[in-house]
Design goal:
alpha/beta; Alpha-Beta Plaits; Rossmann fold; 3 domains; four-stranded antiparallel sheet; 15 helices; 17 strands; phosphoserine phosphatase; PSP; hydrolase
Length: 406
């Protein structure tokens, strides 16, 4: 019985039609078996790796492919007795986001992976707008200690450079998320609704101070809510419609919701704000779930009170669980995105908790953080590329790139 050997062929050069077909035709002529194939194209430069097994000689394989490849302007490298990793899945996905991502910051990430005993299995670009996004699939020891060390090390790297670094476990679990909920104030929208309402009563500054303290976790949220809502007593209920009409979405929010719906996600909002203000926006975005506080209105006037159960810190986590139960999705397949201390329980309960331009109290418990002001960066963290987003937008006529401020 003849012994088989493995050979790795690496072909590189300008990308053009027919390279792969020509290479496979040449390999077919010497009767090799394919074990693995991987191809990457960066700015029209092709690198194609083919791992084969053969009972013939390496020289015969090289002779077969050399002329057809060189005639197409391609170079060929050959490694004999190469080994395959058996397609073992990477243990982690790391997403780097920046505006831009410098070589220095990327080197720091790569060095941290190496210091944890990890290996970078693959790298791909996933976004060029509104941020540069790079996705690294890496393998480290598959245990809790290595996972903790990798995450802690990359958090440190992210504090040294103007980049966001997200770490998720690899495998099917990363692509199995099916429910996502967003906080509203300073997450899905810009600003705080209660401050916009308070501005109508001329009390925006004092309410804003209480809001800020509550979001830092310095005040009990329910108590602070009641205190702030008192400032609205006596306002005509028509103010709700004016404030609802003035809401401004966070950049990328509409793209994010639209894309998540295409992917089959159930999308909702869980807010410490007010249902009467949020519901028109939820209808516009075609959200599946809304949980928020309800302002009491008597004879067309705000009483300065909320009615029914207050959606506070533990209430947000309960709302996420109720939403997941409603659509039959386990909690490990949920995502929560928020910015303040009242989102702590919700992010901790979710399968993936994302702190978006968040206060320190929330950053400490979140699985990952985003410090750039574009909500569609959430999609990149889930492995969705800008090209995929825009290809779908082109199909339904929604493609639009808003010029970024320099």
């Amino acid at each position: 019985m003849q012994t088989k050997r493995t050979i790795l062929l690496t072909v590189s050069g300008p990308d053009r039609p027919g390279v792969t077909s020509s290479l496979m035709g040449a390999l077919a002529g010497v009767g090799v078996d394919l074990l693995d194939v991987e191809q990457v194209v960066i700015h029209n430069h092709l690198t194609l790796g083919v791992l084969v097994s053969t009972t013939g000689s390496a020289a015969a394989v090289l002779d077969a492919v050399d002329l057809p490849m060189h005639s197409r302007g391609m170079s060929v490298e050959l490694a004999v007795d190469a080994t395959s990793n058996g397609h073992r899945p990477s243990t982690h996905a790391i997403v780097i986001l920046g505006q831009p991502v410098s070589a220095e910051s990327f080197q720091a990430v790569a060095a941290e992976v190496a210091s944890c005993g990890g290996n970078i299995d693959s790298i791909r670009g996933i976004a060029d707008y509104p941020l540069t996004g790079l996705e690294l699939m890496v393998t480290v020891a598959d245990d809790a200690q290595a996972d903790t060390a990798l995450r802690a090390g990359l958090v440190t790297v992210a504090t040294r450079f103007p980049i966001d670094v997200a770490v998720e476990r690899g495998g099917l679990a990363r692509r199995a998320k099916r429910v996502i909920v967003f906080d509203v104030d300073s997450t899905l929208i810009q600003g705080e609704v209660i401050e916009m309402l308070a501005a109508e009563a001329g009390r925006e500054a004092e309410v804003a101070a209480v809001t800020e303290a509550a979001m830092r976790g310095e005040l009990d949220f329910a108590e602070s809510l009641h205190e702030r809502v008192k400032a609205l007593e006596g306002l005509d209920a028509e103010v709700i419609d004016r404030v609802a009409a003035a809401l401004e979405l966070t950049p990328g929010a509409r793209t994010t919701i639209r894309t998540l719906h295409r992917l089959g996600y159930h999308c909702g909002v869980v807010s410490g704000g007010f249902r009467q203000v949020i519901e028109p926006l939820a209808r516009d975005l075609e959200l599946d779930f809304v949980r928020a506080n309800t302002l009491e209105i008597v004879d067309g006037v705000l009483t300065g009170r909320v009615i029914d159960e207050v959606v506070d810190r533990p209430g947000k986590a309960r709302a996420l669980r109720a939403f997941a139960d409603q659509v039959g999705v386990p909690m490990e397949q949920t995502i929560a995105v928020g910015d303040g201390a009242n989102d702590i329980d919700m992010l901790a309960a979710a399968g993936l908790g994302i702190a978006f331009n968040a206060k320190p109290a929330l950053r400490e418990v979140a699985d990952t953080t985003l410090d750039h002001p574009f909500l569609d960066a959430v999609l990149f963290m889930l492995g969705v590329t800008r090209d995929e987003i825009e290809a779908a937008d082109i199909e339904d006529g929604t493609l639009r790139r808003v010029p970024l401020e320099s």
